[in-house]
Amino acid sequence: MIEYLTDTEDAEVEKFMKRHNENFQKKVSDIEMIYYHEVNHIPIDIQAIEFLKEVIEKETNPEKKEKYLESLKKKIPKLKNNLKKLKSLEGILKLTNLSENELRNGTTNFYNLFSDEKEFYYGYLKNSDINSNIAGYKGNVPLNPEASRALVSTIYGNSIKWALKGTQINQEISLKDSKLKILIENEFGEKEVRSDIGFGKGTGTKYIETFTKNLKGNFEKYKISKLGNENPIYGVEIKIPLK
Predict the structure, then answer these.
(1) Under 8 Å CB-to-CB from 59, ≥6 apart: which residues?
(2) Which one is the CATH code of 100-241: 3.30.565.10, 3.30.70.270, 3.40.50.300, 3.30.300.30?
(3) Residue 182 pairs with which residues in a beta bridge?
(4) Fewer CB atoms inside 10 A, N or C side of the chain?
(5) Exposed/middle/buried for 6, CB within 10 Å: 0-12, 13-18, 19+?
(6) By the 8 A CB rule, do 148 and 125 touch?
């Protein structure tokens, strides 16, 4: 399908695009919607590469052809990174109703989940001179890993969407008296910096609210920094009681 990918990666791309195209021709469930909310930019990346391949196949000028090939080679690492993201989030599609029992099934390390998001956006963070700082509790908690990954992907993606160049995204995880607290905040501008994250329809916020409500927790937004950012900031605080 796409040069410079393994046969397995080609198959993953084809599987995702087939499912993506089919699902957006019908009404998808809330769980499917949060999955597509987190990976909605990936079909665009794949289609851009496919278009570039078509241009290369039709190009007769050797110099231009080589230039396009070099451009294609530069895009492949990003696509591989996107495939890693797809695989990490696919587990949420196995869930059914996000009930409390389902959300408390399994174990999760939130420090590692934030580290994964930092790694995924590494190139963008570096190019935009944005520091991403993770602090606090590094142990496991008894929460569903698939649902928790989607939660972290959502709140981290929101920060990436709004964080200005040369600023910070700070995260902190704490556990005290069987209560988990997650904070994430970024210095805030008046306009979103990236429009390719999420749908812009409140899907992510709805998921955060469902996740915390079903666990008898609390989700709040705040505007005064708690983690050392320069105000104004956009902050999210999530509190979840653990059993």
Answers:
(1) 65, 68
(2) 3.30.565.10
(3) 173, 238
(4) C
(5) exposed
(6) no
194 vs 41, 49, 152, 162, 215, CA distance in Å? 11, 20, 18, 7, 31
E-strand stretches of the chain: 131-136, 168-176, 179-187, 218-222, 233-241
Query: Is the overall model pTM greater than 0.85, yes or no?
Result: no
Separation of alpha carbons 88 and 70, rounded Å = 29
Average pLDDT across each block of 10 residues of the chain; the chain has 243 residues. List them in order. 74 80 68 85 79 85 87 84 88 92 97 96 94 97 97 94 93 97 90 70 88 97 93 95 91
Phi then psi for 166, rounded to 5 degrees? Answer: 75, 20
Query: Terminal CA-to-CA distance of the chain, rounded, Å?
Result: 48
Structural tokens at position 155: 């709140």
Residue limits of CATH 3.30.565.10 in the chain:
100-241
d(CA 173, CA 114): 10
Q: Which helix (H) or strand (E) holds 241?
A: strand 233-241
CA 8 to chain CA centroid, Å, is 23
* Pairwise CA distance, residues 105 & 103, whole Å: 6
